[in-house]
Amino acid sequence: MGELLPPSVDDAEYQRLVEAGRVLFAQETKFFFGAQRLNQLEPATLPEVAFAGRSNVGKSSLINALTGRKMLARASSEPGRTKQLNFFNIGEKLVFVDMPGYGYAKASKDVKSDWQKMMFAFLRGRPTLLRVMLLLDARIELKQSDHNIMDLLDRAAVTFQIVLTKADQLSAAQLDKKQKEISEVMKTHTAAYPFIRVTSSQKNIGIEELRADLVRLIQD
């Protein structure tokens, strides 16, 4: 299910990062702030990693799996209704920013436009934001909304890493094909980090490895 080692990481370093990730995510993790408007944001004091993805991509499930807490992040009962940025403190070392889901088909054009404006303003104005984890459902073809958010991240000059979710529901051949398709798309985006992480929150696939990615990011 994809390569384990990101670029420029040997096996010994990878094992060190895995252990550091285990230690980090064993620390206290808590929700501490939600903002519906950018003028509500408090000054950032810790490095941040944001999680973005279409509605129903499994964003809350992935955050819960990473932190080992089943109810830390809660999915909205109505997709597309969550409009705020949610902030989670990970052991006083890292902050997760849970961004509102995009691409909900029933959302009005005004809502979609407001989402893009808010996200672009946040991305451009957050110097502590190290990376955006862009979640894509491995089972579903890329939508125009996915291309739009990649373009937005390019314009904001914020590095994003593709994280495939629900990968346990594909065969090895299907998953390999999907990764190749996404890799080709990534080549067209200046802000794309050249490594895809494959995950399944349900089967705990790729969770340990993604924790290692996050530790490496804040240690670099």
From TrEMBL:
Which PROSITE patterns does the UniProt entry name for this protein? G_ENGB
Q: Ubl conjugation: is it a keyword of this entry?
A: no
Matching entries from InterPro entries are given as: G_ENGB_dom, GTP-bd, GTP-bd_ribosome_bio_YsxC, P-loop_NTPase
- A Pfam family of this chain: MMR_HSR1
GO terms for biological process, alphabetical: division septum assembly
Cofactors per UniProt?
Mg(2+)
Record's superkingdom?
Answer: Bacteria
The UniProt keyword set, sorted, is: Cell cycle, Cell division, GTP-binding, Magnesium, Metal-binding, Nucleotide-binding, Septation
Which residue ranges does the record assign to the EngB-type G domain? 45-220
A Gene Ontology CC term for this entry? cytosol
The Swiss-Prot or TrEMBL record annotates one GO molecular function as: metal ion binding
Query: What does this protein's UniProt record list under function?
Result: Necessary for normal cell division and for the maintenance of normal septation.
Q: Which family does it belong to?
A: Belongs to the TRAFAC class TrmE-Era-EngA-EngB-Septin-like GTPase superfamily. EngB GTPase family.
Q: Which PANTHER family match?
A: ENGB-TYPE G DOMAIN-CONTAINING PROTEIN (PTHR11649:SF13), MSS1/TRME-RELATED GTP-BINDING PROTEIN (PTHR11649)
User: What protein name applies here?
Assistant: Probable GTP-binding protein EngB
- Organism of origin is Commensalibacter communis
Question: Which gene is this protein's source?
Answer: engB
